[in-house]
């Protein structure tokens, strides 16, 4: 990247309506690289999910956006069952490797749990907004 092409500013649009988000990171010790991490953001409109964004890191060769999990929630009622399906789809989209931090199976399980937990937290924040 040429010096004149370096971004000096990042703009994140303010979501309309009620929204919330969270970032969950599993690490061996504070400041360590993530073993599994999930960022979740959702917006509500008239009590249903208008938009969801999910980002995963440390569970693939690059950061992942599980679009099937996001799409499963668009226009849906924010229920435990809907969040469970999104967690399952996000885990399915991940491709972690077994290493000293855990097995691939364990990391997929954590993706599922973190996406569900993140969605529940984001929903709580959106309802309180």
How would you describe this protein?
The protein has three helices and three strands. Helix 2 crosses helix 3 (104-128). A three-stranded antiparallel beta sheet has the order 1-2-3. It has 129 residues and is an alpha+beta fold. The radius of gyration is 16 Å and the shape is globular.
Entry keywords:
129 residues; alpha+beta; three-stranded antiparallel β-sheet; 3 helices
Alpha-carbon Rg, integer: 16 Å
Q: What is the distance, rounded to the nearest whole angstrom, between the alpha carbons of the first and last residues?
A: 40 Å
The pLDDT mean sits at 92
Describe the global form.
globular
Largest sheet: 3 strands, antiparallel
DSSP summary: helix tally: 3
Kindly state the number of beta strands.
3
Q: How are the strands of the biggest sheet laid out side by side?
A: 1-2-3
Unreliable residue runs: none
Order of helices and strands: EEEHHH
Amount of helix: 25-40%
- Which secondary-structure class do the elements indicate? alpha+beta
Strand content: 15-25%
Outline of the structure:
By secondary structure, the chain is an alpha+beta fold. It has helices at residues 67-73, 80-93, 104-128; strands at residues 18-26, 36-45, 48-57. Helix 2 packs across helix 3.
Question: Topology of this structure?
Answer:
Layout (H helix, E strand, L loop, with lengths): L17 E9 L9 E10 L2 E10 L9 H7 L6 H14 L10 H25 L1
Antiparallel strand pairs: 1-2, 2-3
Helix pairs in contact: 1-2, 2-3
């Amino acid at each position: 990247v040429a010096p004149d092409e370096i971004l000096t500013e990042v703009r994140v649009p303010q979501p309309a309506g009620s929204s919330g988000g969270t970032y969950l990171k599993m690490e061996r010790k504070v400041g360590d690289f993530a073993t599994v991490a999930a960022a979740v953001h959702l917006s509500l409109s008239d009590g249903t999910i208008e938009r969801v964004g999910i980002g995963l890191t440390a569970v693939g060769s690059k950061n992942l956006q599980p679009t099937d999990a996001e799409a499963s929630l668009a226009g849906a009622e924010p229920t435990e069952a809907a969040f469970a399906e999104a967690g399952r789809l996000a885990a399915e989209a991940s491709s972690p490797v077994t290493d000293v931090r855990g097995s691939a199976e364990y990391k997929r399980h954590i993706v599922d749990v973190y996406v569900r937990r993140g969605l529940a937290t984001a929903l709580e924040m959106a309802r309180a907004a």
